[in-house]
Write a structure and sequence with these properties.
The complex is a heterodimer of chains A (652) and B (716). With 652 residues, chain A is α/β, with parallel strands linked by helices. Chain A is globular, with a radius of gyration of 27 Å. Chain B has 716 residues and is of the alpha+beta class. The chains are: A alpha/beta (652), B alpha+beta (716).
């Protein structure tokens, strides 16, 4: 590695602070301008230029094309951000994709790649060939010789895409690699050294953090050079070669939903005192009664004791002797009881606790809650208390993805979060029209007063459609809901398959079979995300996939992701949501009076009542999203305060 | 989930293995506040202070170059298991120390971060300078070496004996002023006159210089270092300041208070000396200067220095006396708590104060100082707008935003979004916006009595100014204390010249009649010219007789004869046309008011409801009045000089006019009839008339007044 490259490997953009007050209004205005029709028209014009050029290139011979590519590489390396060069690069890459992959890139794909290269987020419907879009953009960026990373939703996709696109990149004169969960350090280094790396957000950030730990104070390029002069033999072998350009697929998932869950590099550290204390707190908590001994605030997720601890409750050992700390511990035990439910926030698998991502229903392996809370939940479940982990480094995606010089992205659903994407990441969301017209029928939501009414209706509907030969996908928000639906289907003897965080071992086959005629699949929202449900021929004839959402999610984005599984790439399909008034969405986001009013409205069955209920859904989703954004914002503020305040202790 | 109150912090790993400790140059002192022990950490380089509780200090003291933060924390847990700092607390503490540059670490500092911090600090300083434009401070030099040299030789000033001397001198000064109170009043008026401003400012500067020297001297004498002397632009007028904050680390509360009061001690002493000089001298430079010094010292002491509601000496004195550092912040915190607890009904809001009395004390201080600040800002804005025309308007707008819009905006943001209100948001919003709406509705919709006042004088409906009809000595001066009847003699004049002329004319007439007789016989041709001559002489005699008749001045109507210096003018020579006195018909009086043109709209709008008069000297009695007519043209001659500036009235008169009646601005004259009253109606008695207008909402009234002000000052 030459000194310049070595210096560059730790050059990152300092994440700027979030604007507040009037500034944030102005910033929103700028964001709106950046995704305005004018900007879109200009982008389309440029994409058209590239597209026209690419059609001309079709007749150019292979050798001449190679010469052009070599020239392109040299010039782009010198001026990495040059827009005209990038346009030319786009046409070259598109042509190479045609020759190597046998796919003729559509205009919208070229446009999508251009949007990403411009550091914006392209909103493209699912099934529009997004892999190729990212591939083209990555190739163009790769020619500038800056490190290019492509972030996919999971390991499987990273590997698959890298493999599929390898011939294309090779033709471009670029090398690509993939880094996945079980890659060894040596492999990782080799992969990161390549022009383009396919990986997941988690791996990318974890490798970055590990590199930072390794470098320590040597994270400063100048300091590294000085050290190299003094001790040329000691090399700091980092895995990555720097952060420059990153393209994120399913960007909203990583940048919004998972934005604040920190990635933690940790090691377990035996702490018997804490374990004992948690056990004691659990015993104490089990004697307490809700209402009598403590109050619960559901909205704030907090617990308050009605009276201070009495003297005989003080038999807690070790460092938990101080009254305040004892109380804290007890509150955690109560919280574990009140707010953490099995199969919702976590699952228990062979005597161990696994956290579940509530928004996606996926397991989050190797994650744990903060000290004390994790043990409190374990104590509640009666499993062996694990040792608290000691954090060595942690960072949230929210912070990490703001450190790149170029962040581009792609997703099917971003519109609802466009303000946040702009304010936090500087990503303008640019919608791209579909190549083939959408043939999905969105049916109006159906409303029910209670859960059990809803479940019966879902079962009836699924049975009816399946009998008509249509494949049905029932999407649930939580694991327990998917189990419930499965139980009810079993009760009426309807065959079906279940895909959730607990039953995820045969994910690929379940997804493959989900498109068969008459098949019923119950899945948590995000299970198998990123893979298409391919319809069989008779399933298509019967009317395509029908998606039943058993609940409206906290964000319209997630609903649309689920609905989007039907009617991909011009296939027929339909989708419908079944909503009960005691769904979490309403309980958490509407005032009690509002909830009662809705129940009354539902009973009347007047003509306008569904319109009101729909408006209530929209309102609840808005509320929930703005609350989530506020929370992410405050995490961000706390993050940057911490960063600033603790800058004396080196890097986090 | 918040980390407040949690034991562990997720960021602990970042500091756990660090070896940090306080910089060697840092000084630590123990102080007691309300009997509680605190540790004051003082950085002499930056002259900054931090205050810690003993529990925190326990931890800080354990930080050593050879121990990690984790080790220090563990030791703390063992040593004091009841009150150890939590991990988030430790992180906050270290961050705070680091930000104050008090921390030394085993890691090489991140130089980029250091520079970034410096830049940020500088830009922050610049911003605070700009927002504090009214109190801009520019350090000029370091007075410490000088003080070091002179203080030892002046240390006797701090002896108890000098304290006694001080009390005696200041009391004597006060007594002197009390003795010469009337003179003081006129001099004070002089000091504020426009042409006296420069002299006043000079006195101000000198007084403040002594004041600041007082702080610096006492601080230095008690061992504190004073490193900054500079110029502060207080409302754009430069005045000296010194930085005596080194006294904050004094262990003794008395000493801290002494430094805080040092300015006033010196200033009042000088004011007392000035009082002696002032009393002992007649009008002149020294007299004027001394009165200005007294004036400045007393006004600034009352308005700013001793007043604890603003952050000047009085505030620090009070906060030291009560033993409550950061009094202002803490009382704001308390006000916020009371708001959250009692207005919004938040149960989680906890008071930082234990006793109820202290709680109310804090709260009332917070409210009081807020109200005082509002009034002061309002005054300052008006003052600036008055003296700096164009810029004044812009600045007034800026300050209105800074002192009104921003705080209100912050309050709204706090109520609508503040984290501490999250559980009681509904009630918080309902109460605050309800009150706000009620206030706005009250101001905007409830008609309130609207009025304006104008100065004027009482005049008799019939009065006549009498003038000397001819030249003459006053021969018969009557003393007429009661009303006189019509035709009564008011004054007798005597003019020997007239008598002599009469005699001469009589002789001429005789001569002419003799000549006529001769002419009858000798030359008949000269008869006609002689006849004409005689007629002319007779005519002259008639005129003279008339003039002589007017020597006795009689009353043209019944009334009261009002004369200046009655009974003292006998034998005076008067020229024709000189005023003799006024004859005022008794009973019927009217009030002649001078209404500035700003109020003309209300005058001619025909919406006047009623009017009342308060006479000078009888302010308690409201005299009913009714507008009779408005002289429908602009006037610029006052009905009485008593209303003009020159004679101590409110109306601006042009400087060139010695009669003091010519106004700088035109006005409208309003004649009002006076209703029945017990008040002594005397001709030319001044008073103020209050016009009651149609009731209208206050906002509307203020809007009109604001427009009038703008129109008057800026012609817009």
């Amino acid at each position: 590695m030459n000194p310049t490259a070595d210096y560059r490997k730790t050059v990152t953009v300092a994440p700027r602070e979030l604007q507040r007050g009037l500034d944030s209004l102005v910033a929103r205005g700028i964001g709106a301008a950046r995704r305005s029709a004018l900007v879109r028209a200009r982008l389309e014009k440029r994409a058209r230029v590239a597209f026209a050029e690419y059609e001309v290139l079709e007749v150019v011979g292979a050798v001449a094309l190679q010469t052009q590519i070599a020239e392109q590489r040299t010039t782009m390396r010198r001026s990495p951000g040059n827009r005209a060069l990038e346009l030319h690069g786009l046409s070259l890459a598109a042509e190479l994709a045609r020759r190597t992959l046998g796919l003729r890139p559509h205009f919208v794909q070229v446009l999508g790649a251009l949007i990403q290269l411009d550091g914006a987020l392209a909103e493209m419907a699912t099934g529009e060939g997004k892999t190729l879009v990212v591939g083209i953009a990555a190739a163009v960026a790769g020619w500038s010789a800056r490190p290019v990373q492509v972030v996919t939703a999971n390991d499987y996709l990273a590997e698959r895409d890298a493999e599929w696109l390898a011939p294309f990149f090779k033709a471009c004169g670029l090398q690509c690699g993939a880094v996945i969960g079980n890659s060894e350090a040596q492999e990782r280094r080799a992969s990161y050294a390549k022009d383009i790396v396919y990986t997941t957000g988690k791996e990318l950030l974890a490798d970055y953090l590990r590199d930072r730990i390794l470098l320590g104070a040597m994270a400063d390029g100048a300091r590294r050079h000085l050290r190299f002069l003094l001790k040329p033999d000691q090399d700091l072998r980092t895995v990555q070669r720097g952060l420059h350009t990153v393209f994120v697929d399913e960007a909203d998932n990583l940048l919004i939903d998972e934005a604040v869950t920190p990635l933690i590099i940790s090691q377990a550290q035996p702490n018997d005192a804490l374990r004992e204390a948690c056990d004691a707190a659990h015993t104490l908590a089990s004697r307490m009664e809700r209402g009598r001994d403590y109050r619960v605030d559901v909205a704030m997720q907090s617990v308050e004791l009605t009276q201070p601890l009495s003297l005989d409750d003080q038999a807690v050992p070790g460092i938990f002797a101080p009254a305040k700390w004892r109380e804290d511990l007890l509150k955690q035990a109560l919280k574990a009881r009140e707010f953490f439910h099995r199969d919702r926030q976590y699952v228990v698998d062979d005597g161990k606790l696994h956290l579940v991502d509530e928004s996606t229903g996926r397991l989050m392996p190797n994650r744990s809650w903060r000290q004390g809370l994790h043990q409190a939940v374990e104590a509640k479940e009666g499993i062996e208390l694990s040792d608290p982990t000691e954090t060595i480094a942690r960072m949230s995606f929210q912070r990490f993805f703001r450190m790149f010089q170029r962040l581009g992205g792609l997703t099917g659903t971003a519109r609802e979060a466009r303000d946040e994407l702009w304010l936090v990441y500087g990503l303008a969301v640019i919608p791209v029209a579909t190549n083939k017209p959408l043939r999905r029928t969105q049916m109006p939501d159906r409303f029910f007063a209670t859960q059990s009414e809803k479940w019966s209706a879902v079962v009836a509907e699924a049975t009816r459609l399946s009998a008509a030969g249509r494949p049905v996908l029932i999407g649930t928000r939580t694991i327990s809901a998917s189990e419930e639906i499965s139980r009810r289907l079993l009760a009426v003897g309807v065959p079906h398959r279940v895909l959730n965080a607990v039953r995820h071992h045969d994910e690929a086959t379940v997804i493959a079979e989900a498109g068969q005629r008459g098949g019923i699949t119950v899945a948590t929202n995000m299970a198998g995300r990123g893979t298409d449900i391919r319809l069989s021929a008779d399933a298509k004839r019967a009317g395509g996939l029908h998606v039943i959402a058993t609940e409206r999610n906290s964000s319209g984005r997630i609903d649309r992701q689920l609905f989007g599984r039907a009617g991909r790439q011009g296939d027929p399909g339909s989708a419908q949501a079944f909503v009960a008034l005691d769904d979490d969405l309403f309980l958490r986001n509407l005032p009690v009076a509002g909830q009662r009013a809705l129940a009354a409205i539902l009973k009347t069955k007047l003509p306008g009542s569904t319109a009101i209920l729909r408006a209530a859904v929209a309102q609840a989703q808005r509320k929930s999203q703005s609350r989530a954004f506020q929370q992410r914002r405050s995490v961000m503020a706390a993050d940057s305060w911490m960063e600033d305040a603790l800058s004396f202790c080196g890097l986090g | 989930m918040d980390e407040q109150g949690a034991i562990f912090s997720e960021s602990w790993h970042r500091i756990a293995a660090l070896k940090v400790h306080l910089r060697a140059s840092v000084q630590v002192r123990r102080q007691y506040f309300r009997g509680e022990k605190w540790f004051i950490v003082h950085d002499p380089f930056a002259n900054s202070f931090l205050r810690f509780r003993p529990a925190v200090w326990q931890f800080l003291a354990r930080l050593r170059p050879d121990r990690t933060v984790q080790q220090a924390w563990d030791e703390c847990l063992e040593a004091a298991p009841e009150q150890p700092p939590t991990q988030p607390e430790v992180i906050r503490l270290l961050a705070q120390l680091y930000q104050s540059n008090l921390l030394q670490s085993d890691l090489p500092p991140d130089s980029a971060k250091l520079l970034e911090r410096k830049d940020r600090r500088e830009s922050k300083q610049l911003r605070s300078t700009l927002t504090n434009l009214l109190f801009l401070k520019i350090p000029v030099l370091d007075p410490d070496p000088l003080l070091r040299r002179i203080v030892p030789s002046l240390k006797w000033l701090l002896s108890p004996l000098m304290g006694v001397v001080w009390i005696v001198i200041v009391l004597a000064g006060i007594a002197t002023v009390a003795q010469h109170w009337p003179m003081m009043r006129t001099d004070a008026a002089d000091a504020l006159a426009p042409d006296g401003i420069l002299a006043l400012y000079a006195a101000f500067f000198v007084t403040k210089a002594i004041h600041e020297f007082g702080h610096a001297f006492i601080c230095r004498a008690l061992g504190g270092e004073v490193h900054r002397l500079g110029i502060m632009f207080f409302l754009f007028s430069p005045m000296p300041y010194v930085d005596a904050t080194a006294s904050w680390s004094f262990r003794s509360r008395r000493q801290r208070m002494l430094v805080g009061a040092g300015g006033m001690i010196f200033e009042l002493f000088i004011a007392a000396l000035a009082a002696f000089a002032w009393a002992a001298t007649g009008p002149g430079f020294v007299h004027r200067f001394a009165s200005n010094v007294m004036f400045v010292a007393s006004i600034s002491t009352v308005l700013f220095n001793i007043n604890p509601l603003v952050r000047f000496d009085g505030y620090y004195l009070l906060s030291d006396w009560l033993d409550v550092p950061n009094l202002a912040q803490r009382s704001m915190v308390e006000v916020k708590h009371l708001f959250e607890r009692f207005v919004c009904g938040s149960r989680t809001s906890k008071s930082a104060v234990e006793t109820t009395a202290a709680r109310w004390g804090f709260a009332s201080y917070g409210v009081g100082s807020a109200i005082y600040r509002i009034f002061m800002s309002y005054g300052i804005v008006l003052l600036i707008a008055e003296y700096f025309f164009g810029i004044g308007l812009v600045m007034a707008a800026v300050f209105a935003v800074m002192w009104f819009v921003v705080p209100v905006g912050k309050f709204i943001a706090y109520v609508a979004r503040g984290a501490s209100l999250s559980r009681v948001r509904g009630r918080a919003c309902a109460v605050s916006f309800g009150v706000l709406a009620a206030v706005v509705a009250f101001l905007g919709f409830v008609p309130m009595p609207s009025r304006f006042t104008a100065p004027g004088v009482v005049e008799a409906t019939q009065y006549r100014q009498m003038f000397a009809p001819v030249d003459g000595f006053i021969a018969d001066e009557r003393i007429l204390s009661n009303d006189v009847l019509e035709g009564a003699t008011l004054l007798g004049l005597e003019n020997p010249q007239l008598d002599l002329e009469m005699e001469s004319l009589q002789s001429q007439r005789q001569e002419i009649s003799e000549l006529q007789r001769t002419a009858l016989t000798t030359s008949i041709a000269s008869a006609e010219p002689l006849r004409q001559r005689l007629a002319a002489v007779e005519q002259k005699m008639a005129t003279l007789a008339e003039q002589r008749a007017t020597l006795t001045v009689t009353a043209p109507f019944a009334g009261r004869w009002m004369v200046p210096r009655q009974g003292q003018r006998g034998g005076h020579w008067l020229q024709r046309g000189e005023p003799l006195g006024e004859l005022v018909a008794p009973g019927a009086f009217q009030f002649s008011a001078v209404v500035p043109q700003d109020e003309a709209a209300a005058l001619f709008g025909g919406e006047m409801a009623s009017a009342q008069i308060r006479l000078s000297g009888e302010a308690g009695v409201l005299v009913p009045a009714k507008i009779e007519r408005i002289v429908p043209a602009k006037q610029d001659e006052l009905p009485s000089a008593a209303l003009g500036w020159r004679s101590g009235g409110d109306v601006a008169v042009s400087a060139g006019d010695h009669a003091g009646k010519h106004t700088t601005e035109p006005f409208f004259k309003v004649i009002a009839t006076i209703g029945t009253t017990d008040a002594a109606l005397l001709h030319r008695r001044t008073g103020v008339i209050r016009f009651e207008l149609q009731a209208e909402p206050l906002l509307q009234q203020w809007w009109r007044k604001g427009r009038q002000l703008l129109q008057k000052r800026y012609r817009v």
